Amino acid sequence: MAQVFVGLGSNLSNPVKQINRALASLERLTDTSVKSCSKLYGSAPQGPQNQPDFVNAICLLETLLSPMELLSALQGIEQTQGRVKKRHWGERLIDLDILLFDNLTLSTPELTIPHSEVSNRDFVLIPLFEIAPDLILPNQGSLRDLIDQLETTYLYPLSLSTDLT
Ligand code: ROI
């Protein structure tokens, strides 16, 4: 079983509902189970500022799927849920990213693991810290140090948990 951290983000059409729908779909994936989930966080948009705040969360999966199989499963969930990509770094209904896949490093045109933006995104690092405080990232050191290096954070807990926690 591989341990995989997946990031969830949404800033359109009731983001909390979108995140919970995606989590329910993750629970139904073959050969995969959802082990834990962070709380939901509100976060100021990275990229263009003239879009709604995001809701972000992280969950830990255990899976027998390969990275590419998991990627296409996540893309399937995004498609069924109705992913709309309006502009680069713009608003989205649901975004599911493979952040870490065991200690694997992988760089192909389709998939980069660890996700290239993990180490500088507060909306990834802080929810990740909530469920895996002792995590060491391949080639990037400890999660704790990465968080210490964040300059500012624009993250606020939503005092809501996912339907699964
Ligand atoms: N900004 C925040 N705060 N959260 C996201 O999930 C997110 N996702 C993105 C871009 C548009 C880069 N900005 C984001 O893809």
Keywords:
globular; alpha+beta; binds 7,8-dihydro-7,7-dimethyl-6-hydroxypterin; 4 helices; two-stranded antiparallel sheet; 28% strand; 10 strands
Q: What does this molecule look like?
A:
This protein has helices at residues 15-27, 67-81, 122-131, 143-148, and strands spanning 2-10, 32-37, 41-43, 54-63, 95-101, 106-107, 112-113, 136-137, 141-142, 155-157. It is of the alpha+beta class and 165 residues long. A hairpin with a 4-residue loop joins strand 6 and strand 7 (112-113). Helix 1 packs across helix 2 (67-81). The protein is globular and about 40 Å long. The mean pLDDT is 92. 7,8-dihydro-7,7-dimethyl-6-hydroxypterin binds at residues 9, 43-47, 54, 56, 89, 95, 123.
Layout: helices, strands, pairs:
Elements (H helix, E strand, L loop, with lengths): L1 E9 L4 H13 L4 E6 L3 E3 L10 E10 L3 H15 L13 E7 L4 E2 L4 E2 L8 H10 L4 E2 L3 E2 H6 L6 E3 L8
This protein binds 7,8-dihydro-7,7-dimethyl-6-hydroxypterin.
7,8-dihydro-7,7-dimethyl-6-hydroxypterin binds next to β4.
Summarize the structure.
The chain has 165 residues and is an alpha+beta fold. Helix content is 27%, strand content 28%.
Instruction: Count up the domains.
Output: 1
Classified by CATH, the class is Alpha Beta
The Cα radius of gyration reads: 15 Å
Which ions and ligands are bound to the chains? 7,8-dihydro-7,7-dimethyl-6-hydroxypterin
- Major sheet attributes: 6 strands, antiparallel
The CATH fourth-level homologous superfamily:
7,8-Dihydro-6-hydroxymethylpterin-pyrophosphokinase HPPK
Morphology: globular
Q: pLDDT below 50 for ≥5 consecutive residues: which ranges? A: none
Tell me the CATH architecture: 2-Layer Sandwich
Order of helices and strands: EHEEEHEEEHEEHE
| Annotation, overall tally of beta strands | 10
Helix content: 25-40%
Mean pLDDT: 92
- Quote the distance from N terminus to C terminus: 22 Å
Tally of contiguous helical segments: 4
| Proportion in β-strands | 25-35%
Give me the CATH fold name: Alpha-Beta Plaits
Structural class designation: alpha+beta
